Amino acid sequence: MLKGINLQLYIGPLVPIPASRAVMEALTDVTVTVKDVGRSGFQLSFNVSTQSPLHTLFLLTGGGPIKFLRVVIVAIVNGSPQVIMDGVATKHEIVPGSDAGHAILKVTGEDLSALMDMIDFSGFPFPALPAEGRVALMLLKYAIFGVIPLIVPSLLIDIVIPTNRIPAQQSTDLDYISELARQVGYVFYVEPGPAVGVSIAYWGPQIKVGVPQPALSTNMDAHSNVESLRFSFDSTQNAIPTLYYYEELSKVPIVIPLPPITPLNPPLGLLPPIPVRLAPVGPDLSKRSLTQGIMMGLAKAAEWAEVVSGSGELDVLRYGRILQPRRLVGVRGAGLAYDGLYYVKSVTHKIKRGEYKQSFELSRNGLISTIPQVPV
């Protein structure tokens, strides 16, 4: 690898162990894509001979005694290790190599949330448990994989009286947990780290506040640390989520427009976009309470207000650290309209021998920076 950058790979059926020297020498490419919401994935490429035991190893993960293979990828930049992926291999394929005696073995996988989508537990009852308790109970079975729940109680603590109704799970753990999050305007994802073999299962609001990462600098000659950076502004996607609530006492329908600004989703742009239309929060709100509808609407409002988007690529060695998703980052050198703080929506790690690059996607809810300068 490059000077100051090292890569560690851990592989194992349940508890991953450091990969052997032969495996690391065969490894040629690593691609890891981490999104702010939903599943993240990875792909490993090995240059192996046709008689390599690696073929047998990954075949065993499909139909043999080992039903899955766990993979942990750790990147060490300037002595600081960071777990960029903790997941399971879900697919492998063989691609012909440069000669008849060699081939390229590609292993594709997803983060540990893939384990939560394997078994359908429909019908499992949760008597007298709010959504937070149901999520904690479902995540408990994945503690053996080092999954630690991080659950933020919602403003809506709804406990169903067992004599009236007993909530039951629908579909897999992942689908049901994601649906429970959507009902209260929350998100769910599994984040690897901070240590090898440990992951955080986060169920809570999408947070767009915190200490920003060092700025992405462009058009600044020797101070530039990105290879490309481009922005776009699309105001047509912005809408005001509208909640239609029927008040039973007065028999009058009430229209409630919901703002996109909350304490966890502050304005990152000085000039917010002008909404172009009203849009209902969802088709199934007749079954929800008023508080639940408001929480879902606030989440939709924050999503629709992200009209400023950016994308680009950087060299990790020049940037000096790994750009992390689900956090803020500063931008400078892009001009008055686009300088300032952004939320990192996704990051793709592209690692080869002698090269470590990241492509990224940014978003913001307005033009012109709200702060005089960004951290360098």
Number of helices: 6
Which regions contain 5 or more consecutive residues with pLDDT less than 50? none
Annotation, overall tally of beta strands:
21
Q: Sheet bearing the most strands, described?
A: 13 strands, mixed
When the domains are counted, the total is 3
CATH class of the largest domain: Mainly Beta
CATH architecture tag of the largest domain = Roll
CA distance, first residue to last residue:
26 Å
Rg is 23 Å
What form results from the Cα inertia axes? flat
Strand content: 35-45%
CATH topology of the largest domain: Phage tail proteins - horseshoe like beta roll fold
Please state the average pLDDT score: 82
Reading the helices and strands in chain order gives: EEHEEHEEEHEHEEEEEEEEHEHEEEE
Blueprint of the fold:
Blueprint: E1 5-12, E2 17-18, H1 21-26, E3 27-35, E4 41-49, H2 54-63, E5 69-77, E6 80-96, E7 102-111, H3 131-140, E8 147-151, H4 173-183, E9 187-192, E10 199-204, E11 213-217, E12 226-233, E13 240-247, E14 252-257, E15 269-271, E16 278-280, H5 290-304, E17 308-315, H6 316-319, E18 328-332, E19 340-352, E20 355-364, E21 367-369
Parallel strand pairs: 8-10, 11-18, 13-16
Antiparallel strand pairs: 1-2, 1-5, 3-4, 3-19, 4-7, 5-6, 6-7, 9-10, 12-17, 13-14, 15-21, 17-20, 18-19, 19-20
Helix pairs in contact: 3-4
